């Protein structure tokens, strides 16, 4: 199993559609389970509210922080042709298209963060089963 993200860092404008591209290769015959998880960026010492108004305000994603300091939630899962959305994303135009690409519809303020694409197969346990994509949503 090999999972890759085409664009590890995506910058999008507020209210524009976003597509995070995740691809996988597997020897499994049955379709795997694809899960997209969201993690907020690490909070800044100034108490940044996560709103990005210009490219110069892009958060520093290189500084590590514990998961306890972040917001973490399941965005969506896909098994076969069935996509299930996490509670926070119900009612939004969010889905998994193709094999494992996450379509966020119009980008919202709270969408900036780290997205983890995980592909799970009981028939293919070797290799790398996840990849990471960062999304920064810019205002006007």
Automatic annotation (TrEMBL):
Residues 16-133 form the Ig-like domain. PROSITE patterns: IG_LIKE. GO terms for cellular component: membrane. Coiled coil: none annotated. This is ILDR2 protein. It comes from Sula dactylatra (Masked booby).
